[in-house]
């Protein structure tokens, strides 16, 4: 084991110990700060920010007697101060705590309440420091600036916060390309690592017999002529063409294949997904499948939830399917969250709504969110084995690019707000509601979700993950068409792109399309690049771009 690896292993062990401690004592702000430090050292500034934010919330609980977790948080802090001031607060002493050789004077020597109040104040300033520095590293400049300002309001001479503030200004000038930076216009969308975290025990081996058998048993119900198999796909790199790389690397993934011959026009898959959301506050869409509700009036099939006002479903079937998520949000005032967003925020808002739906499903079904069968097996476009530190060795591979979109609002504050609305204790449910779990869910949704526009005004309003449909890979000469109404439907094309008769033979891969195939090769490649991870290299693209012709 080399030095870097040894350090990594030690940090992961430490992370495990602190997480276990938090599962035992969930309201301990110090343990959260400790875990933030471990996450920062492991190279996860996003997770460090998430922990520091939870610690900050707990310091608020301690400060406010009327708050829900005041007693538990105060007791946790008191217990941590029994042997003196916790070491994590002594590394940099932003409050004016007195220390004596690493161990503070004990509670007997001073008024205990005053002492705890001071420790709590110091803890909160540490939280601001950690939040500002970590969010800056993630590229969330506005949130970093906000926490920096809040920290400086409490501790104006704090050198760490002043330094971070300087860095925020430098990065902001670079990103906004100018010296005149308005702090209200700071970018707040960043990128973080997109990976299967080393401690994630929920991710299945997608190529195991167990996974493939499970998916095939599910497929029998909605696509009896399809089966899932391992597929070899070209490894796509942004802007790389086949003339530049004749030896194209490939990678193993899953794909859909025909088990029997399929006739032109024949339906191949018909999938209903409860993992469907819409962002319209006052539109008449079904809460379960987000289809436009049928007309109300005599004989209408529309039904409402018997227990809460305003939640409407197409029919009794959708109401019955809603039993898998609705009880967690029934009458819980979650309706307005992420609805009618600013157009710039539409994608983020839809992903947050998908996350909210998944959390409601998990809560209702008393299941870990990553164990939900609609989520467990889907593609997440994760980058494996990301090193946490950049190696200086000339032989080291270049560090992977961070690809998971991240913001304080979507990844940290938003999900916690939703859980609180659902009456979930965000501290005592860490095992199910930790930030790395939200990030993993986002990775999966961003790898598989599709969106739909409102035909009347062209606004994107619905998003969904169809866990079986999304197993199909892309081609610009697809052999199926798809249509998404209440259900997602694939049917075999009557004609292929060259006007040849459609039809899929037994054993052939079922190829969908992720972009409008009527476009030119350049436009198609630009459109599909986001969902493919690079320039499309299907036979049609290679032919039309003139690549590989020599
Ligand atoms: C929605 S998933 C498709 C199913 C996925 N192969 C799986 O294992 O579940 C989309 C991902 O499949 C891969 N993919 C799909 N079509 C491809 C193609 N024509 N060439 C290369 N990769 C493709 C890309 O990695 C893309 O990010």
Strand fraction:
5-15%
CATH superfamily of the largest domain: Tetratricopeptide repeat domain
Kindly state the percentage of residues in helix: 25-40%
> What general outline do the C-alpha atoms trace?
globular
Describe the protein in words:
By secondary structure, the protein is of the alpha+beta class. The chain folds into 3 domains: 3-188, Tetratricopeptide repeat domain (Serine Threonine Protein Phosphatase 5, Tetratricopeptide repeat, Alpha Horseshoe); 223-266 and 466-544, SET domain (Beta-clip-like, Beta Complex); 274-380 and 402-464, no CATH class. The protein is built from 15 helices and 14 strands. Strands 4-13-12 form a 3-stranded antiparallel beta sheet, with no helix packed on it. Strands 5-10-9 form a 3-stranded antiparallel beta sheet, with helices on one face. Strands 1-8 form a two-stranded antiparallel ribbon. The two termini are 47 Å apart. The structure holds S-adenosylmethionine. GO terms for molecular function: zinc ion binding. Pfam families: SET. Keywords: Metal-binding, Zinc, Zinc-finger. Residues 224-515 form the SET domain.
